């Protein structure tokens, strides 16, 4: 057999895992800090920017305006609720008034019917009065022709007619 000329270097056997190059590599501390610095700065800059921006005059004014808007909105909401309550009360009052109007209209119709009835009775009484006056006139002319001696009966009849006329005048 021919001799071999290449040499394999022996692989060191290490018992502890920390010393193994294959299992863990240690980075120097300055390299770790150098790599973490941009990450930390990258996270802190936006936080600082938003913190400064949140405390800026415009933002504070915006928050104040928002607070005032909310207060005005709450005030307007209270006014709206009061207006709705008043509207509900007025609707109730209107319903009561409408009911009263219906009742009054019915009463008015009854009163109008009574007035019409009274007017009919008044027409009848006026006709009776005209008839009585015509009768008085006829009797007077008859009594003038028949006798002048019966003056006392004529005056008592005249008294009845005048009383009837006064009564009629009081009724109208």
From TrEMBL:
<keyword id="KW-0175">Coiled coil</keyword>
<dbReference type="GO" id="GO:0005794">
    <property type="term" value="C:Golgi apparatus"/>
</dbReference>
<feature type="transmembrane region" description="Helical">
    <location>
        <begin position="29"/>
        <end position="52"/>
    </location>
</feature>
<keyword id="KW-0812">Transmembrane</keyword>
<dbReference type="GO" id="GO:0045087">
    <property type="term" value="P:innate immune response"/>
</dbReference>
<dbReference type="InterPro" id="IPR024886">
    <property type="entry name" value="BST2"/>
</dbReference>
<dbReference type="Pfam" id="PF16716">
    <property type="entry name" value="BST2"/>
</dbReference>
<keyword id="KW-1133">Transmembrane helix</keyword>
<feature type="transmembrane region" description="Helical">
    <location>
        <begin position="151"/>
        <end position="171"/>
    </location>
</feature>
<dbReference type="GO" id="GO:0051607">
    <property type="term" value="P:defense response to virus"/>
</dbReference>
<dbReference type="GO" id="GO:0008191">
    <property type="term" value="F:metalloendopeptidase inhibitor activity"/>
</dbReference>
<feature type="coiled-coil region">
    <location>
        <begin position="66"/>
        <end position="149"/>
    </location>
</feature>
<keyword id="KW-0472">Membrane</keyword>
<dbReference type="GO" id="GO:0009986">
    <property type="term" value="C:cell surface"/>
</dbReference>
<protein>
    <recommendedName>
        <fullName>Bone marrow stromal antigen 2</fullName>
    </recommendedName>
</protein>
């Amino acid at each position: 057999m021919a001799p071999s000329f290449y040499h394999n270097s022996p692989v060191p056997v290490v018992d502890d895992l920390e010393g193994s190059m294959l299992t863990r590599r240690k980075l120097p501390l300055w390299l770790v800090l150098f790599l973490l610095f941009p990450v930390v700065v990258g996270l802190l800059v936006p936080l600082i920017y938003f913190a400064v921006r949140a405390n800026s005059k415009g933002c504070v004014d915006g928050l104040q305006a928002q607070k005032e808007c909310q207060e005005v909105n709450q005030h307007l909401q209270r006014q709206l609720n009061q207006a709705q309550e008043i509207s509900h009360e007025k609707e109730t009052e209107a319903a009561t008034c409408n009911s009263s109007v219906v009742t009054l209209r019915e009463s008015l119709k009854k009163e109008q019917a009574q007035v019409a009835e009274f007017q009919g009775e008044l027409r009848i009484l006026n006709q009776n009065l005209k008839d009585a006056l015509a009768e008085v006139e006829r009797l007077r002319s008859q009594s003038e022709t028949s006798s002048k001696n019966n003056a006392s009966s004529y005056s008592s009849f005249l008294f009845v007619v005048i009383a009837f006329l006064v009564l009629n005048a009081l009724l109208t």
